[in-house]
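User: two proteins, same treatment. go.

Assistant:
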Amino acid sequence: DRGSQYASKDFRRLLKAYGFKGSMSRKGNCWDNAVAESFFGSLKQERVQWRHYQTRYEAQQDVLDYISMFYNSRRLHSYLDYMNPNEYEQKLLGMKKAA
Protein backbone atom coordinates (compact mmCIF):
# COMPACT_ATOMS: atom_id res chain seq x y z
CA ASP A 1 0.00 0.00 0.00
CA ARG A 2 1.34 3.40 -0.88
CA GLY A 3 -1.10 5.45 1.17
CA SER A 4 0.17 8.83 2.32
CA GLN A 5 -0.44 7.86 5.95
CA TYR A 6 2.29 5.20 5.64
CA ALA A 7 4.79 7.64 4.15
CA SER A 8 4.21 10.35 6.76
CA LYS A 9 7.00 11.39 9.09
CA ASP A 10 4.82 10.70 12.15
CA PHE A 11 4.11 7.14 11.08
CA ARG A 12 7.76 6.43 10.21
CA ARG A 13 8.80 7.86 13.59
CA LEU A 14 6.30 5.57 15.33
CA LEU A 15 7.64 2.53 13.47
CA LYS A 16 11.19 3.41 14.46
CA ALA A 17 10.21 3.94 18.10
CA TYR A 18 8.86 0.38 18.27
CA GLY A 19 11.68 -1.21 16.28
CA PHE A 20 9.74 -1.84 13.06
CA LYS A 21 10.96 -1.31 9.54
CA GLY A 22 8.49 0.27 7.13
CA SER A 23 8.04 -1.20 3.68
CA MET A 24 5.97 0.06 0.77
CA SER A 25 5.35 -1.55 -2.58
CA ARG A 26 6.81 -0.08 -5.72
CA LYS A 27 4.70 2.53 -7.42
CA GLY A 28 2.31 1.00 -9.93
CA ASN A 29 3.19 -2.62 -9.07
CA CYS A 30 0.18 -4.37 -7.54
CA TRP A 31 2.02 -7.71 -7.46
CA ASP A 32 4.53 -6.66 -4.79
CA ASN A 33 2.17 -7.56 -1.98
CA ALA A 34 -0.46 -9.66 -3.75
CA VAL A 35 -0.53 -12.55 -1.26
CA ALA A 36 -1.01 -10.29 1.75
CA GLU A 37 -3.58 -8.15 -0.09
CA SER A 38 -5.52 -11.30 -1.01
CA PHE A 39 -5.50 -12.57 2.58
CA PHE A 40 -6.63 -9.27 4.07
CA GLY A 41 -9.34 -8.96 1.43
CA SER A 42 -10.65 -12.40 2.41
CA LEU A 43 -10.43 -11.59 6.11
CA LYS A 44 -12.38 -8.37 5.70
CA GLN A 45 -15.01 -9.80 3.38
CA GLU A 46 -15.55 -13.15 5.11
CA ARG A 47 -15.24 -12.15 8.74
CA VAL A 48 -14.53 -8.66 9.97
CA GLN A 49 -17.07 -6.62 8.05
CA TRP A 50 -19.93 -8.62 9.55
CA ARG A 51 -18.80 -8.27 13.16
CA HIS A 52 -19.02 -5.53 15.76
CA TYR A 53 -16.30 -5.95 18.36
CA GLN A 54 -16.63 -4.51 21.86
CA THR A 55 -12.89 -4.62 22.60
CA ARG A 56 -9.60 -4.89 20.75
CA TYR A 57 -8.98 -8.20 22.52
CA GLU A 58 -12.28 -9.58 21.20
CA ALA A 59 -11.30 -8.54 17.66
CA GLN A 60 -7.85 -10.12 18.02
CA GLN A 61 -9.31 -13.40 19.26
CA ASP A 62 -11.87 -13.50 16.47
CA VAL A 63 -9.23 -12.87 13.80
CA LEU A 64 -6.98 -15.56 15.29
CA ASP A 65 -9.93 -17.96 15.34
CA TYR A 66 -10.70 -17.17 11.68
CA ILE A 67 -7.09 -17.84 10.69
CA SER A 68 -6.52 -21.02 12.69
CA MET A 69 -9.96 -22.63 12.57
CA PHE A 70 -11.08 -21.65 9.07
CA TYR A 71 -8.57 -19.97 6.74
CA ASN A 72 -5.67 -22.36 7.41
CA SER A 73 -7.76 -25.52 7.62
CA ARG A 74 -11.18 -25.47 5.96
CA ARG A 75 -11.29 -22.55 3.50
CA LEU A 76 -11.01 -23.48 -0.18
CA HIS A 77 -7.91 -21.97 -1.80
CA SER A 78 -7.51 -21.45 -5.53
CA TYR A 79 -3.76 -22.10 -5.20
CA LEU A 80 -4.59 -25.58 -3.85
CA ASP A 81 -6.87 -26.40 -6.79
CA TYR A 82 -9.88 -25.30 -4.74
CA MET A 83 -9.23 -27.76 -1.93
CA ASN A 84 -8.93 -26.77 1.68
CA PRO A 85 -5.47 -27.09 3.28
CA ASN A 86 -6.44 -30.22 5.23
CA GLU A 87 -7.68 -31.99 2.08
CA TYR A 88 -4.59 -30.93 0.15
CA GLU A 89 -2.31 -32.24 2.87
CA GLN A 90 -4.12 -35.60 2.85
CA LYS A 91 -3.81 -35.75 -0.94
CA LEU A 92 -0.05 -35.15 -0.72
CA LEU A 93 0.33 -37.77 2.00
CA GLY A 94 -1.59 -40.26 -0.14
CA MET A 95 0.67 -39.54 -3.11
CA LYS A 96 3.74 -39.98 -0.91
CA LYS A 97 2.52 -43.38 0.34
CA ALA A 98 1.80 -44.53 -3.22
CA ALA A 99 5.31 -43.61 -4.39
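Protein 2:
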Amino acid sequence: MGGPSWAMLTLNSQLNLDGPFSLLRAARLKHRAFSPFRNAIPSVMLALACMVATPASAEVRSVTANPAEDCSTQMNIGWHADLGETSCSVVYTQKSDAAWAQAMRVAGKSKRSEVFDGIDSKTSDSKDWKEEAKFLDYGVTLTGLKPDTDYMYKVAVDDTVSTDPARHFKTAGASEFSFLWLSDVHVYTPLPRRTDRLNTVFDAAIKIEPSVDFVYSTGDVVAWGGSYSFWKKLFEQPFSSKYMFADVIGNHDWMKRRDGGNNEFFAVAHNNPTNGYAGQEGVSYWFIYGDVLFMAFNTEAMRDGPEAEAEAKAWAAGVIEKQKGKYKRIFIAQHYNWFDGRNGKSAWYDHWKDFCDEHHVTLAMSGHNHVYQRTHSLWDDQVVSDGLGTVYMVAPSSDGERGVEAGPLTMNAEKLAFTYSSHVYSTDGQVRTVGCVLVDVGPKSIKTRLVYMDEQNQAQIADEHTITTLPTDASRSALPSKRPATKTEKPAPEVTSGTMMQ
Protein backbone atom coordinates (compact mmCIF):
# COMPACT_ATOMS: atom_id res chain seq x y z
CA MET A 1 0.00 0.00 0.00
CA GLY A 2 2.95 2.30 0.67
CA GLY A 3 3.33 5.40 2.85
CA PRO A 4 2.07 5.98 6.39
CA SER A 5 -1.20 4.47 7.46
CA TRP A 6 -3.64 5.24 10.25
CA ALA A 7 -5.25 1.86 9.71
CA MET A 8 -2.94 -0.56 11.52
CA LEU A 9 -2.44 -1.29 15.22
CA THR A 10 0.63 -3.24 16.38
CA LEU A 11 -0.05 -5.77 19.13
CA ASN A 12 3.39 -6.75 20.42
CA SER A 13 4.56 -7.46 23.94
CA GLN A 14 8.07 -6.31 23.01
CA LEU A 15 6.97 -2.71 22.41
CA ASN A 16 8.65 -0.31 24.79
CA LEU A 17 6.63 2.84 24.32
CA ASP A 18 6.41 5.67 26.82
CA GLY A 19 3.28 7.39 28.10
CA PRO A 20 -0.14 5.99 27.21
CA PHE A 21 1.32 3.69 24.59
CA SER A 22 2.68 1.46 27.35
CA LEU A 23 -0.84 0.08 27.50
CA LEU A 24 0.04 -1.92 24.42
CA ARG A 25 2.89 -3.82 26.05
CA ALA A 26 0.99 -6.82 27.39
CA ALA A 27 -1.31 -7.19 24.44
CA ARG A 28 0.47 -9.78 22.37
CA LEU A 29 -2.10 -12.15 20.91
CA LYS A 30 -1.17 -15.76 21.65
CA HIS A 31 -2.74 -18.15 19.24
CA ARG A 32 -2.72 -21.71 18.01
CA ALA A 33 -3.43 -22.60 14.40
CA PHE A 34 -7.17 -22.85 13.91
CA SER A 35 -7.88 -22.55 17.65
CA PRO A 36 -9.22 -19.32 19.19
CA PHE A 37 -7.40 -17.68 22.06
CA ARG A 38 -9.32 -16.43 25.09
CA ASN A 39 -7.13 -13.48 26.07
CA ALA A 40 -8.96 -10.17 26.28
CA ILE A 41 -7.75 -7.33 24.06
CA PRO A 42 -7.77 -4.05 26.04
CA SER A 43 -10.47 -1.86 24.52
CA VAL A 44 -8.32 1.25 24.74
CA MET A 45 -5.97 -0.23 22.17
CA LEU A 46 -8.42 0.17 19.32
CA ALA A 47 -9.07 3.75 20.33
CA LEU A 48 -5.34 4.48 20.45
CA ALA A 49 -4.96 3.12 16.95
CA CYS A 50 -6.69 6.19 15.61
CA MET A 51 -3.83 8.29 16.98
CA VAL A 52 -0.90 6.19 15.84
CA ALA A 53 0.54 6.38 12.34
CA THR A 54 2.44 3.20 11.51
CA PRO A 55 4.09 2.21 8.26
CA ALA A 56 1.92 -0.06 6.16
CA SER A 57 4.24 -2.88 5.19
CA ALA A 58 1.62 -5.33 3.98
CA GLU A 59 -1.44 -5.38 1.84
CA VAL A 60 -4.44 -7.55 2.66
CA ARG A 61 -7.20 -7.60 0.07
CA SER A 62 -10.28 -9.43 -1.15
CA VAL A 63 -11.47 -10.11 2.39
CA THR A 64 -14.81 -11.88 2.56
CA ALA A 65 -16.96 -14.06 4.80
CA ASN A 66 -18.25 -17.16 3.03
CA PRO A 67 -20.49 -19.90 4.40
CA ALA A 68 -19.11 -22.90 6.24
CA GLU A 69 -21.02 -26.17 6.29
CA ASP A 70 -23.01 -25.34 9.44
CA CYS A 71 -23.61 -21.60 9.47
CA SER A 72 -25.16 -21.70 12.94
CA THR A 73 -21.77 -22.34 14.58
CA GLN A 74 -19.22 -21.90 11.77
CA MET A 75 -18.12 -19.31 9.22
CA ASN A 76 -15.36 -19.23 6.59
CA ILE A 77 -13.21 -16.12 6.19
CA GLY A 78 -10.95 -15.70 3.16
CA TRP A 79 -8.43 -13.07 2.09
CA HIS A 80 -5.26 -12.56 0.07
CA ALA A 81 -1.95 -11.19 1.31
CA ASP A 82 1.47 -10.32 -0.05
CA LEU A 83 3.80 -13.28 -0.52
CA GLY A 84 5.96 -12.32 2.44
CA GLU A 85 3.08 -12.19 4.90
CA THR A 86 3.18 -15.78 6.11
CA SER A 87 1.58 -15.22 9.53
CA CYS A 88 -1.92 -13.83 9.02
CA SER A 89 -4.93 -14.46 11.23
CA VAL A 90 -8.49 -13.37 11.95
CA VAL A 91 -9.46 -11.50 15.11
CA TYR A 92 -13.18 -11.70 15.84
CA THR A 93 -15.81 -11.13 18.49
CA GLN A 94 -19.54 -10.63 18.87
CA LYS A 95 -20.78 -7.31 17.51
CA SER A 96 -22.15 -6.45 20.95
CA ASP A 97 -18.58 -6.54 22.28
CA ALA A 98 -17.87 -2.98 21.15
CA ALA A 99 -14.60 -2.80 23.09
CA TRP A 100 -13.35 -6.11 21.64
CA ALA A 101 -12.81 -7.23 25.23
CA GLN A 102 -13.67 -10.85 24.41
CA ALA A 103 -11.96 -10.95 21.02
CA MET A 104 -10.43 -14.20 19.85
CA ARG A 105 -7.91 -15.02 17.18
CA VAL A 106 -7.57 -17.85 14.67
CA ALA A 107 -4.44 -18.36 12.58
CA GLY A 108 -4.94 -18.65 8.85
CA LYS A 109 -3.74 -21.32 6.47
CA SER A 110 -2.38 -20.18 3.14
CA LYS A 111 -1.08 -21.38 -0.18
CA ARG A 112 0.66 -19.50 -2.93
CA SER A 113 -1.53 -18.51 -5.88
CA GLU A 114 -0.42 -17.41 -9.33
CA VAL A 115 -3.54 -18.51 -11.21
CA PHE A 116 -4.38 -14.93 -12.24
CA ASP A 117 -0.87 -13.72 -12.95
CA GLY A 118 -0.05 -12.68 -16.51
CA ILE A 119 -3.62 -13.02 -17.84
CA ASP A 120 -4.76 -10.53 -20.48
CA SER A 121 -7.00 -7.91 -18.93
CA LYS A 122 -7.97 -4.24 -18.87
CA THR A 123 -7.00 -1.41 -16.54
CA SER A 124 -9.64 0.91 -15.11
CA ASP A 125 -8.87 3.40 -17.89
CA SER A 126 -9.48 0.63 -20.45
CA LYS A 127 -5.87 0.03 -21.42
CA ASP A 128 -4.69 -3.46 -22.25
CA TRP A 129 -2.51 -5.03 -19.60
CA LYS A 130 -1.61 -8.34 -17.99
CA GLU A 131 -2.77 -9.02 -14.46
CA GLU A 132 -0.04 -8.90 -11.82
CA ALA A 133 -1.32 -11.20 -9.11
CA LYS A 134 1.01 -13.38 -7.07
CA PHE A 135 -0.17 -13.70 -3.49
CA LEU A 136 -0.94 -15.97 -0.57
CA ASP A 137 -4.49 -17.26 -0.62
CA TYR A 138 -5.60 -17.40 3.01
CA GLY A 139 -8.56 -19.00 4.72
CA VAL A 140 -9.86 -19.88 8.15
CA THR A 141 -12.96 -21.63 9.43
CA LEU A 142 -14.29 -20.08 12.60
CA THR A 143 -15.93 -22.69 14.83
CA GLY A 144 -17.79 -22.71 18.12
CA LEU A 145 -19.79 -19.63 17.19
CA LYS A 146 -23.03 -18.71 18.93
CA PRO A 147 -26.14 -19.26 16.78
CA ASP A 148 -28.26 -16.30 15.69
CA THR A 149 -25.52 -13.82 16.56
CA ASP A 150 -23.92 -10.86 14.81
CA TYR A 151 -20.13 -11.02 14.67
CA MET A 152 -17.39 -8.61 13.64
CA TYR A 153 -13.89 -9.46 12.51
CA LYS A 154 -10.60 -8.05 11.23
CA VAL A 155 -7.50 -9.53 9.61
CA ALA A 156 -4.14 -9.39 11.39
CA VAL A 157 -0.71 -9.58 9.77
CA ASP A 158 1.78 -10.94 12.31
CA ASP A 159 0.83 -8.93 15.42
CA THR A 160 -0.67 -6.05 13.48
CA VAL A 161 -4.45 -5.83 13.37
CA SER A 162 -6.15 -3.64 10.82
CA THR A 163 -8.10 -0.79 12.35
CA ASP A 164 -10.08 -0.29 9.19
CA PRO A 165 -13.78 -0.58 10.01
CA ALA A 166 -14.70 -4.04 11.23
CA ARG A 167 -16.34 -6.47 8.85
CA HIS A 168 -19.45 -8.43 9.80
CA PHE A 169 -21.46 -11.62 9.40
CA LYS A 170 -24.41 -13.21 11.16
CA THR A 171 -24.73 -16.83 12.15
CA ALA A 172 -27.83 -18.89 11.45
CA GLY A 173 -30.08 -20.13 14.20
CA ALA A 174 -33.18 -17.95 14.14
CA SER A 175 -36.49 -19.52 13.16
CA GLU A 176 -36.71 -16.96 10.34
CA PHE A 177 -34.02 -15.45 8.14
CA SER A 178 -33.73 -13.26 5.06
CA PHE A 179 -31.21 -12.97 2.27
CA LEU A 180 -30.65 -10.62 -0.62
CA TRP A 181 -30.22 -12.41 -3.92
CA LEU A 182 -28.33 -10.68 -6.71
CA SER A 183 -26.96 -11.83 -10.04
CA ASP A 184 -25.04 -10.82 -13.15
CA VAL A 185 -23.15 -7.78 -11.93
CA HIS A 186 -20.27 -8.26 -14.39
CA VAL A 187 -17.85 -6.07 -12.42
CA TYR A 188 -15.59 -4.44 -15.02
CA THR A 189 -13.25 -1.74 -13.80
CA PRO A 190 -13.39 0.36 -17.01
CA LEU A 191 -17.17 0.71 -16.41
CA PRO A 192 -17.57 1.65 -12.74
CA ARG A 193 -21.26 2.44 -13.16
CA ARG A 194 -21.97 -1.28 -13.04
CA THR A 195 -21.00 -1.42 -9.38
CA ASP A 196 -22.68 1.94 -8.79
CA ARG A 197 -25.97 0.51 -10.03
CA LEU A 198 -25.52 -2.63 -7.96
CA ASN A 199 -24.99 -0.54 -4.84
CA THR A 200 -28.02 1.62 -5.64
CA VAL A 201 -30.44 -1.29 -5.87
CA PHE A 202 -28.71 -3.07 -2.98
CA ASP A 203 -29.15 -0.07 -0.70
CA ALA A 204 -32.77 0.30 -1.80
CA ALA A 205 -33.47 -3.34 -0.98
CA ILE A 206 -31.85 -3.04 2.45
CA LYS A 207 -34.08 -0.07 3.24
CA ILE A 208 -37.06 -2.26 2.36
CA GLU A 209 -35.76 -5.23 4.37
CA PRO A 210 -33.18 -4.07 6.96
CA SER A 211 -33.04 -7.51 8.58
CA VAL A 212 -31.18 -9.19 5.69
CA ASP A 213 -28.83 -11.82 7.13
CA PHE A 214 -26.62 -12.62 4.14
CA VAL A 215 -26.14 -12.10 0.40
CA TYR A 216 -26.54 -14.81 -2.24
CA SER A 217 -25.39 -14.54 -5.86
CA THR A 218 -26.20 -16.77 -8.81
CA GLY A 219 -23.05 -15.84 -10.67
CA ASP A 220 -21.39 -13.60 -13.21
CA VAL A 221 -20.28 -11.23 -10.48
CA VAL A 222 -17.26 -10.25 -12.59
CA ALA A 223 -16.89 -9.72 -16.33
CA TRP A 224 -13.83 -11.99 -16.66
CA GLY A 225 -12.98 -14.41 -13.90
CA GLY A 226 -9.34 -14.41 -14.95
CA SER A 227 -9.02 -10.69 -14.19
CA TYR A 228 -8.04 -10.53 -10.54
CA SER A 229 -8.44 -6.76 -10.45
CA PHE A 230 -12.16 -7.27 -11.10
CA TRP A 231 -12.51 -9.62 -8.13
CA LYS A 232 -10.63 -7.17 -5.97
CA LYS A 233 -13.05 -4.44 -7.02
CA LEU A 234 -16.02 -6.66 -6.19
CA PHE A 235 -14.82 -7.26 -2.65
CA GLU A 236 -14.27 -3.54 -2.15
CA GLN A 237 -18.03 -2.99 -2.45
CA PRO A 238 -19.85 -2.22 0.83
CA PHE A 239 -21.91 -5.41 0.89
CA SER A 240 -18.76 -7.53 1.16
CA SER A 241 -17.86 -6.07 4.54
CA LYS A 242 -21.36 -6.27 5.99
CA TYR A 243 -22.63 -9.75 5.17
CA MET A 244 -21.76 -13.36 4.59
CA PHE A 245 -21.52 -13.84 0.82
CA ALA A 246 -22.55 -17.10 -0.86
CA ASP A 247 -21.81 -17.21 -4.58
CA VAL A 248 -22.33 -19.53 -7.55
CA ILE A 249 -19.84 -19.74 -10.41
CA GLY A 250 -21.08 -18.24 -13.68
CA ASN A 251 -19.63 -18.44 -17.15
CA HIS A 252 -18.10 -14.99 -16.78
CA ASP A 253 -16.57 -15.94 -13.43
CA TRP A 254 -14.98 -18.95 -15.12
CA MET A 255 -13.69 -17.23 -18.27
CA LYS A 256 -10.60 -15.29 -19.21
CA ARG A 257 -10.61 -12.34 -21.56
CA ARG A 258 -9.30 -14.74 -24.17
CA ASP A 259 -8.80 -18.49 -24.51
CA GLY A 260 -11.18 -20.32 -22.22
CA GLY A 261 -11.33 -20.30 -18.46
CA ASN A 262 -10.55 -22.01 -15.17
CA ASN A 263 -12.58 -23.07 -12.12
CA GLU A 264 -9.68 -21.97 -9.94
CA PHE A 265 -10.47 -18.31 -10.55
CA PHE A 266 -13.69 -18.76 -8.60
CA ALA A 267 -12.22 -21.11 -5.99
CA VAL A 268 -9.34 -18.77 -5.14
CA ALA A 269 -11.58 -15.69 -5.05
CA HIS A 270 -13.72 -17.30 -2.33
CA ASN A 271 -13.22 -19.48 0.73
CA ASN A 272 -16.17 -21.78 0.14
CA PRO A 273 -16.55 -25.19 1.78
CA THR A 274 -14.44 -27.77 -0.04
CA ASN A 275 -17.18 -30.39 0.14
CA GLY A 276 -17.84 -30.68 -3.59
CA TYR A 277 -17.14 -33.75 -5.66
CA ALA A 278 -13.75 -34.47 -7.24
CA GLY A 279 -12.50 -31.49 -9.22
CA GLN A 280 -15.23 -29.24 -7.83
CA GLU A 281 -13.88 -28.52 -4.36
CA GLY A 282 -14.75 -24.96 -3.40
CA VAL A 283 -16.76 -24.48 -6.61
CA SER A 284 -19.71 -26.83 -6.26
CA TYR A 285 -20.51 -26.89 -2.55
CA TRP A 286 -23.22 -27.05 0.08
CA PHE A 287 -24.01 -25.40 3.38
CA ILE A 288 -26.87 -25.30 5.87
CA TYR A 289 -28.36 -21.98 6.99
CA GLY A 290 -31.34 -22.25 9.32
CA ASP A 291 -33.34 -25.28 8.26
CA VAL A 292 -32.34 -24.96 4.59
CA LEU A 293 -29.76 -27.04 2.75
CA PHE A 294 -28.23 -24.82 0.05
CA MET A 295 -26.43 -26.52 -2.84
CA ALA A 296 -24.45 -24.64 -5.50
CA PHE A 297 -23.61 -26.19 -8.88
CA ASN A 298 -21.10 -25.41 -11.62
CA THR A 299 -22.94 -25.24 -14.94
CA GLU A 300 -19.68 -24.81 -16.83
CA ALA A 301 -18.69 -28.30 -15.69
CA MET A 302 -22.12 -29.75 -16.43
CA ARG A 303 -22.01 -28.42 -19.98
CA ASP A 304 -19.45 -31.11 -20.76
CA GLY A 305 -22.24 -33.63 -21.31
CA PRO A 306 -24.68 -36.07 -19.69
CA GLU A 307 -21.97 -37.83 -17.69
CA ALA A 308 -20.82 -34.58 -16.09
CA GLU A 309 -24.39 -33.66 -15.27
CA ALA A 310 -25.04 -37.10 -13.79
CA GLU A 311 -21.92 -36.79 -11.63
CA ALA A 312 -23.18 -33.50 -10.19
CA LYS A 313 -26.60 -34.96 -9.45
CA ALA A 314 -25.14 -38.07 -7.85
CA TRP A 315 -23.04 -35.89 -5.56
CA ALA A 316 -26.08 -33.78 -4.65
CA ALA A 317 -28.22 -36.84 -3.96
CA GLY A 318 -25.50 -38.16 -1.67
CA VAL A 319 -25.38 -34.88 0.25
CA ILE A 320 -29.17 -34.86 0.63
CA GLU A 321 -29.10 -38.38 2.04
CA LYS A 322 -26.08 -37.92 4.31
CA GLN A 323 -27.29 -34.63 5.80
CA LYS A 324 -30.85 -35.85 6.35
CA GLY A 325 -32.16 -34.72 9.72
CA LYS A 326 -30.08 -31.52 9.69
CA TYR A 327 -32.38 -29.59 7.35
CA LYS A 328 -36.06 -29.40 6.40
CA ARG A 329 -35.96 -27.75 2.98
CA ILE A 330 -33.64 -27.74 -0.02
CA PHE A 331 -32.61 -24.77 -2.18
CA ILE A 332 -30.46 -25.45 -5.24
CA ALA A 333 -28.65 -22.83 -7.29
CA GLN A 334 -26.75 -22.65 -10.56
CA HIS A 335 -25.93 -19.89 -12.99
CA TYR A 336 -27.68 -20.88 -16.22
CA ASN A 337 -31.38 -20.06 -16.34
CA TRP A 338 -34.27 -22.51 -16.07
CA PHE A 339 -36.31 -20.71 -18.75
CA ASP A 340 -35.76 -17.93 -21.28
CA GLY A 341 -37.63 -14.86 -20.12
CA ARG A 342 -37.90 -13.52 -23.66
CA ASN A 343 -40.41 -16.19 -24.70
CA GLY A 344 -40.69 -18.88 -22.00
CA LYS A 345 -38.61 -21.54 -23.75
CA SER A 346 -37.25 -24.22 -21.44
CA ALA A 347 -33.53 -24.16 -20.83
CA TRP A 348 -31.98 -25.91 -17.81
CA TYR A 349 -35.39 -26.64 -16.30
CA ASP A 350 -35.50 -29.74 -18.49
CA HIS A 351 -32.17 -30.87 -17.03
CA TRP A 352 -33.22 -30.56 -13.39
CA LYS A 353 -36.98 -31.05 -13.13
CA ASP A 354 -36.76 -34.79 -12.43
CA PHE A 355 -34.12 -34.26 -9.75
CA CYS A 356 -36.21 -31.54 -8.11
CA ASP A 357 -39.30 -33.73 -8.22
CA GLU A 358 -37.50 -36.72 -6.71
CA HIS A 359 -35.88 -34.80 -3.86
CA HIS A 360 -38.72 -32.32 -3.24
CA VAL A 361 -36.57 -29.25 -3.79
CA THR A 362 -38.36 -26.17 -2.45
CA LEU A 363 -36.62 -23.43 -4.45
CA ALA A 364 -34.40 -23.57 -7.55
CA MET A 365 -32.38 -20.38 -8.15
CA SER A 366 -30.49 -19.24 -11.25
CA GLY A 367 -29.35 -16.18 -13.21
CA HIS A 368 -27.73 -15.64 -16.63
CA ASN A 369 -30.86 -14.68 -18.59
CA HIS A 370 -30.93 -11.17 -17.09
CA VAL A 371 -34.75 -11.37 -17.02
CA TYR A 372 -36.50 -11.92 -13.69
CA GLN A 373 -38.70 -15.02 -13.64
CA ARG A 374 -40.79 -16.93 -11.12
CA THR A 375 -42.77 -20.07 -11.80
CA HIS A 376 -45.74 -21.51 -10.02
CA SER A 377 -45.02 -24.54 -7.86
CA LEU A 378 -44.16 -27.29 -10.38
CA TRP A 379 -44.06 -31.07 -10.17
CA ASP A 380 -44.05 -33.46 -13.10
CA ASP A 381 -44.37 -30.51 -15.50
CA GLN A 382 -47.64 -29.53 -13.86
CA VAL A 383 -48.69 -26.65 -11.66
CA VAL A 384 -49.44 -28.02 -8.20
CA SER A 385 -50.44 -26.56 -4.85
CA ASP A 386 -47.88 -24.68 -2.77
CA GLY A 387 -45.50 -26.95 -0.94
CA LEU A 388 -46.01 -29.88 -3.26
CA GLY A 389 -43.59 -28.83 -5.99
CA THR A 390 -40.57 -26.67 -6.77
CA VAL A 391 -40.59 -22.94 -7.49
CA TYR A 392 -38.00 -22.05 -10.16
CA MET A 393 -36.71 -18.48 -10.17
CA VAL A 394 -34.25 -16.45 -12.22
CA ALA A 395 -32.76 -13.29 -10.72
CA PRO A 396 -32.57 -10.14 -12.85
CA SER A 397 -29.27 -8.56 -13.78
CA SER A 398 -27.94 -6.01 -11.30
CA ASP A 399 -25.60 -3.99 -13.50
CA GLY A 400 -27.97 -2.05 -15.78
CA GLU A 401 -26.21 -3.34 -18.89
CA ARG A 402 -26.09 -6.41 -21.12
CA GLY A 403 -29.77 -7.12 -20.53
CA VAL A 404 -32.47 -8.56 -22.76
CA GLU A 405 -36.15 -7.76 -22.75
CA ALA A 406 -38.92 -9.87 -21.28
CA GLY A 407 -41.32 -10.73 -24.08
CA PRO A 408 -44.65 -12.49 -24.65
CA LEU A 409 -44.62 -16.05 -23.36
CA THR A 410 -45.12 -18.27 -26.38
CA MET A 411 -44.07 -21.37 -24.41
CA ASN A 412 -44.60 -22.54 -20.83
CA ALA A 413 -47.00 -19.70 -20.13
CA GLU A 414 -48.90 -21.96 -17.74
CA LYS A 415 -45.73 -22.53 -15.68
CA LEU A 416 -44.33 -19.01 -15.49
CA ALA A 417 -46.17 -16.84 -12.99
CA PHE A 418 -44.21 -13.60 -13.48
CA THR A 419 -41.43 -12.16 -15.63
CA TYR A 420 -39.83 -8.73 -15.61
CA SER A 421 -37.17 -6.69 -17.36
CA SER A 422 -36.67 -3.03 -18.00
CA HIS A 423 -37.87 -1.85 -21.40
CA VAL A 424 -35.35 0.98 -21.60
CA TYR A 425 -32.52 0.42 -24.05
CA SER A 426 -29.01 1.82 -23.96
CA THR A 427 -27.39 3.41 -26.98
CA ASP A 428 -25.77 0.06 -27.85
CA GLY A 429 -29.11 -1.75 -27.80
CA GLN A 430 -28.95 -3.42 -24.39
CA VAL A 431 -31.79 -3.41 -21.87
CA ARG A 432 -30.97 -1.56 -18.65
CA THR A 433 -32.40 -3.88 -16.00
CA VAL A 434 -31.19 -3.21 -12.45
CA GLY A 435 -32.73 -5.45 -9.84
CA CYS A 436 -32.37 -8.01 -7.07
CA VAL A 437 -34.61 -10.31 -5.04
CA LEU A 438 -35.42 -10.34 -1.33
CA VAL A 439 -36.09 -13.79 0.10
CA ASP A 440 -37.67 -14.15 3.54
CA VAL A 441 -37.62 -17.70 4.88
CA GLY A 442 -40.05 -18.56 7.66
CA PRO A 443 -40.67 -21.91 9.36
CA LYS A 444 -43.52 -22.81 7.00
CA SER A 445 -43.35 -20.29 4.17
CA ILE A 446 -41.11 -18.29 1.85
CA LYS A 447 -41.79 -14.74 0.70
CA THR A 448 -40.00 -13.35 -2.36
CA ARG A 449 -39.96 -9.76 -3.58
CA LEU A 450 -38.46 -8.34 -6.75
CA VAL A 451 -36.78 -4.97 -6.14
CA TYR A 452 -35.87 -2.97 -9.23
CA MET A 453 -34.93 0.57 -10.25
CA ASP A 454 -37.42 2.23 -12.60
CA GLU A 455 -36.75 4.70 -15.43
CA GLN A 456 -36.48 7.54 -12.87
CA ASN A 457 -34.00 5.51 -10.81
CA GLN A 458 -36.57 5.01 -8.07
CA ALA A 459 -36.84 1.69 -6.26
CA GLN A 460 -39.96 -0.34 -6.91
CA ILE A 461 -41.27 -3.61 -5.48
CA ALA A 462 -43.00 -6.13 -7.72
CA ASP A 463 -44.19 -9.73 -7.61
CA GLU A 464 -44.38 -9.95 -3.83
CA HIS A 465 -45.37 -13.55 -3.33
CA THR A 466 -45.61 -15.94 -0.39
CA ILE A 467 -45.72 -19.69 -0.77
CA THR A 468 -46.46 -22.30 1.86
CA THR A 469 -43.68 -24.87 2.11
CA LEU A 470 -43.40 -28.42 3.37
CA PRO A 471 -40.38 -30.25 4.76
CA THR A 472 -38.72 -32.43 2.15
CA ASP A 473 -39.68 -35.59 4.02
CA ALA A 474 -43.32 -34.60 4.57
CA SER A 475 -46.09 -36.68 3.05
CA ARG A 476 -47.33 -35.42 -0.31
CA SER A 477 -50.31 -37.68 -0.82
CA ALA A 478 -52.08 -34.96 -2.80
CA LEU A 479 -49.56 -35.18 -5.62
CA PRO A 480 -50.90 -36.68 -8.84
CA SER A 481 -49.30 -39.80 -10.23
CA LYS A 482 -46.31 -39.26 -12.48
CA ARG A 483 -47.20 -39.13 -16.15
CA PRO A 484 -45.26 -40.85 -18.93
CA ALA A 485 -42.45 -38.63 -20.19
CA THR A 486 -43.45 -36.71 -23.30
CA LYS A 487 -42.00 -33.72 -25.12
CA THR A 488 -44.77 -31.19 -25.53
CA GLU A 489 -42.84 -28.01 -26.09
CA LYS A 490 -42.76 -26.56 -29.58
CA PRO A 491 -39.61 -25.02 -31.05
CA ALA A 492 -39.12 -21.37 -30.16
CA PRO A 493 -40.06 -18.84 -32.82
CA GLU A 494 -37.47 -16.30 -33.88
CA VAL A 495 -37.06 -13.73 -31.13
CA THR A 496 -36.28 -10.12 -31.94
CA SER A 497 -36.81 -8.52 -28.54
CA GLY A 498 -33.19 -8.76 -27.50
CA THR A 499 -29.87 -10.51 -27.92
CA MET A 500 -28.68 -12.99 -25.33
CA MET A 501 -25.32 -11.84 -23.98
CA GLN A 502 -23.20 -14.69 -22.66
